[in-house]
């Protein structure tokens, strides 16, 4: 159950990061509200996952899902640049997530 909560917490991190970008510095109401709601839900699910997962594992997986997801959303929907170096960086983050999951005792 903790891994499922952590996965959804990571997805919500992507949601709030995208909504924050769309809020234009919290000057637009709807994206600002989505940001705040998604943040609260993401933190709540992260705290639930941390009941049984180690802090380092949970936090790394949560931020990694958010980082990779935000990168993908930025490229796919916001026209952000994609380059071999950025792809290599994303691959390194992904490999770190896989290694952390494999090394986790839970």
UniProtKB/TrEMBL annotation:
Which InterPro entries does the record associate with it? EmrE-like (IPR037185), Small_drug/metabolite_transptr (IPR000390), Small_multidrug_res (IPR045324)
**Any one biological process term the GO annotation gives:** xenobiotic detoxification by transmembrane export across the plasma membrane
Superkingdom of origin? Bacteria
UniProt keyword annotations, A-Z: Cell membrane, Membrane, Transmembrane, Transmembrane helix, Transport
Membrane topology term reads: Multi-pass membrane protein
Tagged with keyword Transmembrane = yes
Q: Spell out where the chain crosses the membrane.
A: 33-50, 57-79, 85-103
Q: Name one GO molecular function term.
A: transmembrane transporter activity
| PANTHER family in the record | GUANIDINIUM EXPORTER, SMR FAMILY PROTON-DEPENDENT DRUG EFFLUX TRANSPORTER SUGE
Give the protein name, as stated in the record: Guanidinium exporter
Q: Which SUPFAM superfamilies match?
A: Multidrug resistance efflux transporter EmrE
NCBIfam families in the record, alphabetically?
PRK11431.1 (NF008512)
The UniProt family comment states: Belongs to the drug/metabolite transporter (DMT) superfamily. Small multidrug resistance (SMR) (TC 2.A.7.1) family. Gdx/SugE subfamily.
Claim: Ribonucleoprotein is one of the keywords in the record:
no
What broad class describes the main subcellular location of this protein?
membrane
